[in-house]
Amino acid sequence: MADTIPNPESEGPAGGWGSLKSIIRIYGDNHPPVSVLQTLSQQNKPGGVMCVSCAWPKPANYHPFEFCENGAKATLSDLTSARCTPDFWNDHTVSELREWRDYDLEQTGRLTHPLRYDVGTDRYVAVTWDEAFSEIGRVLKPLPPERVVFYASGHAGLEASYLYALLARAYGNNNLPQSSNMCHETTSVGLTKVIGSPVGTIIWDDLQQADAFFFFGQNPGSNSPRFLHPLQDAKKRGARIVTFNPVVEQGLVSFVNPQNPFDMLTGQETKISDEYLQVQAGGDIAAILGLCKVVIEADDAALARGGKRVLDVDFIAEHTTGIDRFIDLVRTTPWSEIERESGLEESALRRAGEIYVTSERVIGVYGMGLTQHVQGSLNIGMLVNLLLLRGNIGREGAGCCPVRGHSNVQGQRTVGIAEKTELVPMDKLRQLFDFDPPTEDGTTIVDAVKGLMEGRIRATISLGGNLLRAVPDQEEMERVWPRQELTVMISTKLNRSHLFPGRHAYILPCLSRLEEDRQASGVQSVTTEDSFSHISGSIGKRSPASRHLKSELAIIAGIAKATLAPNPKLRWDDWTADYSLVRDLIEYTYPDDFKDYNARIFEPGGFYRGNDARNRVWNTEEKKAVFTTPSQLNALSFKDDAGRYRLVTLRSNDQFNTTIYGYSDRFRGIEDTRDVVLMSEADMRAAGLAEGQNVTLVSDFGDGVRRELGGLAVRAHNLPEGTICAYYPEANVLNAIDHHDELSQTPASKAIPVRIEPS
Ligand SMILES: Nc1nc2c(c(=O)[nH]1)N[C@H]1C(S)=C(S)[C@@H](COP(=O)(O)OP(=O)(O)OC[C@H]3O[C@@H](n4cnc5c(=O)[nH]c(N)nc54)[C@H](O)[C@@H]3O)O[C@H]1N2
Ligand SMILES: Nc1nc2c(c(=O)[nH]1)N[C@H]1C(S)=C(S)[C@@H](COP(=O)(O)OP(=O)(O)OC[C@H]3O[C@@H](n4cnc5c(=O)[nH]c(N)nc54)[C@H](O)[C@@H]3O)O[C@H]1N2
Ligand SMILES: [Mo]
Rounded to two decimals, what is the model's pTM? Predict the structure, then answer.
């Protein structure tokens, strides 16, 4: 599609007054004190607090306000004045709460006391911390270690995360799956395979030097809104932006900077995408192949006229392997096949390809639209192919930019929350703590869910998150999860996972990072790693939501002390008293990444732990960057069939994962409901469906299991034919646990095969 796509349903550009209205509405719902504005003004700056929302980096030269609409919502949500006290359970049973929506659970406010599930009354009751820890220890001690899972969502800082991983290993397993196993594990595995790095290669300065950005399946307007500022700057200096996304996402169409008074008063919009290509879900491999075809054709033409090569031949010769086979495929794949598999026209791909060929420095940006597919790793391999053709990795202003999710999701992996033993320096752990770390790989999320289904997993500890609600095959999970011997959730707010307690079940309420964390040696800082591998200190300054809360680190230490055999090298009390001691351990364990750690945590913009691929050192098996020849042209495990749709599960602008702040998805023009299925008018006509008609989505995975989600109203939306959308997490009942990326086991949440039945 050419030029700007009209999106008649949308409320106008991203940012702007809509953004302020949206923040004010959430503010009204939460009634936090006015001083919360001070917290926002300190956000993402040295000596301030690092946002609790996403992992978008913090610039060293920060703006007066370094927060965004959705960061503000996350902050307001943590600082709500609502409290979910033990009295709440006088009026509600756990079974009754299963009828509540995620939004209603969130509105109960911050958890205030450690809680134990009481099966007799079907309620949670307050317990002391000592009781909770000793009971958890009593249940954990006799369990075979391989039957316990230590899940982490990406919230907790590096210090708590390091100790959490240590707890699991000292207990005896590597069962440390993380939220990234549902998210960017495709990056950790897929990108490592081709460039030898599990993380992105760019840093902040590159954003300011790039001539073009190619976006694949990442939605900055809702999910990393501070990205819109450097994009706006880039557009102002003439950079070009090309977007591949089945959905017309407003933040990639146009933006009004809500922190620029001139833009706000004049309504000055910056058009973001020069080309917006509505690829069909799972069609990126073919789309990128089309772009590569344009590159090869341009290079052929340059060769013929004796002009400057379009391929970076020196780079390719010195740094890459596998190009010949790949180019063969590019040459022999006809445009008709590319059009069919991508759903895009040759002419549109040629326009996009032309931008790629005529830009000196290109950044490839991607998110869940590439990673959450059965061939997600191939998607990433293809994006890297495109970048390698013109040497766009390891050069200023160019590179690969996976945009990570939770604020410390990348960092948790860096400091040992990893189920793969090869990623962890076990010898260092042995030296430091005098025990033999387990040698077997642990469970991914898919392994853990299957283990739960088969009754192998007997206990789950969750450091943050809402695992039950975030995974596929949700209905089955709700059936099997409570069969566990023990469920422990370290949480800030009530969520659906709490409502399926194991035989012994505890909710352990923790401080938010925004809150002051005072320990024996004084107020503590914690650190997080952003999407550009920069590490920043964060000091919470708000008074805690309840005096009974403990820090995540203190809770981990409490569980560890009650569970593990005594070991003088495991100094849980000292570490809890002074987090800088934990940073010393991290530095000792990972000396290259964390040199002079304690001294550097407040460097503006954070300190960089480096990335070999950025320096064109390739830690792949081949010691080169690898061109991948894809085995298929789409990212799916199924074929198109009459009545079978590719269901994309979407985030609204009013949610953070399973935390639902409200019912306004204003960029997509959807208000007051999440119970919708979006589809193209052509698909509606073909299926004989009318606007507003009530339908049921049914899994078409083909394994004979009935999975369905009913009560959805059909809404006409600007989408490619065959691609339909519904909201995550509600749609998780429709996905099968075996539907995941082949290489990394990341659940394929972006093209779930479904049929539509009238309700
Ligand atoms: N406000 C807010 N911020 C968040 C989050 C949140 O829920 N709310 N979640 C955080 C987390 S954990 C993460 S991982 C990130 C997620 O942030 P994103 O990576 O942006 O994830 P999604 O919004 O799930 O999907 C991204 C886009 O992929 C598109 N898409 C779907 N299928 C395809 C496809 O086959 N090809 C292409 N090219 N595009 C496709 C969708 O239309 C959507 O625009 O955001 C983080 N930040
Ligand atoms: N269908 C579908 N499924 C998906 C996705 C999708 O796009 N489609 N996306 C996947 C992705 S990318 C991800 S990352 C996962 C997310 O999965 P999770 O990370 O497991 O889920 P969250 O919703 O982020 O967890 C929210 C809960 O975390 C707790 N919490 C919040 N802040 C803190 C804190 O500071 N500390 C602690 N200890 N707890 C806290 C609160 O109790 C809150 O209820 O879901 C995945 N599932
Ligand atoms: Mo994520």
Answer: 0.96
